[in-house]
Specification:
By secondary structure, this protein is α+β, with helices and mostly antiparallel strands. About 45% of the residues lie in helices and about 15% in strands. A hairpin with a 2-residue loop joins strand 23 and strand 24. Helix 5 packs antiparallel against helix 6, helix 7 runs antiparallel to helix 8 and helix 11 packs across helix 12. The radius of gyration is 30 Å and the shape is globular. Belongs to the carnitine/choline acetyltransferase family.
Length: about 775
Amino acid sequence: MAEAHQAVGFEFTVRPDGVDIKLSREVLKNIYLSGVTAWKKRAIRFKNGVLAGVYPASPSSWLIVVIVMMSSLYTRIDASLGMIHVIRDTLPFTDQLSLQTRAVLGAILFATGLWLFLIFLLRYTLKALLSYHAWIFESHGRMSTSTKVWLSLVKMFSGRRPLLYSFQASLPRLPVPSVEETIQRYLESVRPLLDNDKYNQMEILANEFMDTQASQLQRYLILKSWWSNNYVSDWWEEYIYLRGRSPIMVNSNFYVMDLLYITPTHRQAARAGNVVHAMLQYRRKLERGEHAPLRALGTVPMCSAQMERMFNTTRLPGVETDIVQHLNDRKHLVVYHQGRFFQLWLYTGGRHLLPSELEMQFQRILKDKSAPQPGELKLAALTAGNRVPWAQARHQFFSSGVNKQSLDAIESSAFFLSLDDEPQGYDPSKERSLDSYAKSLLHGKCYDRWFDKSFTLISYPNGKMGINTEHSWADAPIVGHMWEFVLATDCFHLGYTEEGHCKGDLNKGLPFPTRLKFDLPTECLKVIESSYVLAKQIADDVDFYGYLFNDFGKGLIKKCRTSPDAFIQMALQLAQFRDQKVFCLTYESSMTRMFREGRTETVRSCTCEAVSFVRAMEDCRATKAQRLSLFKKAADKHQNMYRLAMTGAGIDRHLFCLYIVSKYYGGNSPFLKQVLSEPWKLSTSQTPQQQLNLVDINKFPKYVSAGGGFGPVADDGYGVSYIFVGENLITFHISSKYSCPDTDSYRFGQQIQKAMLDIQALFSTENGSAIVQNGKKHM
């Protein structure tokens, strides 16, 4: 019971001759160190907050301005044009201050005002510069003179050593496109999917909308764009994610995989210890705002707002809508293992637990043989089922007593860790090992992930790891940023001993992890079981196929002078048509983080140009030159649409917000209703890699991740995530539903592979030779 004694700061005994008090020096020392650490953290946050608040200026520049103004008093050169004298004469308590003192105070106040004015001037100048987006539409490798001048000005006004949130106030707001342009692009996007009668009917609805409601709804939307930081993001989070009442497992959450070829250690507790410690290092830098902001071209900043809620965040269920709860300074972790929940403190003596200490704590949990309490085994299935029963159960059964205390511990934890007992990971010697790994990350057993947490870290007994992420608070690139940092820190900075343990000494005096207590009534057990049954049906229906495409990668595609993303999207269109014999509405996610609080926009990949290309590929009469010409037109069209989406001129977010305004206004638009009800039978996304460039994959080619994926969006469609890994590998994550007789993830994967090779063959040279990449000849 050593840990129990250490938890007590003092003891006292009442004796006949008085009270005998015994103090625990070790505990008091830990309390003192924790207090010192907390004050240091506040000081660092305050300092970094000031630095970010005055960026691109610096606090030292204030002193320079003050010195210049003070110098003007003695050189008798009035740089303030009389303002210092006006301030001097209007200061209060003039009778109690000498003329010289008032002059000095006037100079300091004027200098401060001038300094603040210059900060705002610099910010708005930088904001105006960042509103220029013509550089995105220029051909790759061909930069115009105006863009070179613009880039130099952005660098000049961006300052030096920016912190994570330094550019937030300088980012432009997401512009509201004109209704006419949006509807024109929309009609163009659906033209290849509709016959003449249906297209004419859609044109009539669109024209009727523009003639009646559009201008009024647009005015409200423009007003919102002036008032809020982003006219889309808050409504997108609320109506697309938080108001959904169906299960978020599979339908919303997504997953991220571990390293493909490398497992740094096969000891589960050791790997979890290093990874959790690396996450704590990342969180510390995040809370202090010390991460460098991501910048396109190394210069154009991206919005960092989504990163704020990465840790200490939980989605809380409600009857009508959920809410996202974000807390500060959470110092514990909740661990799930074999049906038991453990609370683990992450700090001791004012510092993070070391990797070796975390390994010891996780090993204690793994060795614990206590049985789950009634209902505890499948408790997390509540987060996998429908939202309304979970919200009602939370209010009815978890509002008081030990149930409330334990649920509060879970929901207020830094994040959730699941220590699984079945090995997973990519194994080339096992057939479809990537499929099993993906399904484990996506839904697990339906009760061993807390799907409401911002993310659940998953640890396997063979040393592999992974993440399941709740989607409402952020998008995949945000989690990918953290995961790249964690993997690089784990493998290249923390490391392991020769036996595979974490480096460092053991501290056996740490208190044992604490079992969370539950007292669940029979009614609650029934809700848990019904949620589990529903979740199990959803999980069992997921048909997944993941594979590594290594015939060529983006290196060869770029040699063909084609956008790698456009190449994949055209291959997906060809594969979709071959698989389903029809074209369908296709969703590709694009980011809008060049704007403040930007998230995503939709790129509609099934264009008239893409359809013409696919039909030519299936037409035996079409020549190779014709197919190649049509491919280039389709790829150029797609790339232009992607650029429009990135610069705020997309289609779907604008129409979505117009629809929301119409609902608030009490109107009913048949056009908007039709647009918002269209199913996305092919949903695609590219997961970014190497955002931080912490690992040189040319030097360490085995230290790469397979990226991540998501569940099918439509009951009769496919979900496809693809990742360019270095120059020579592309990974695909394909999902569909077994319940649909027309879809098959494995079959679709084979169609994608064939489409990729067929398109690549179009680029062979006229004399019959082929482009050579890494010693391979591709025909």
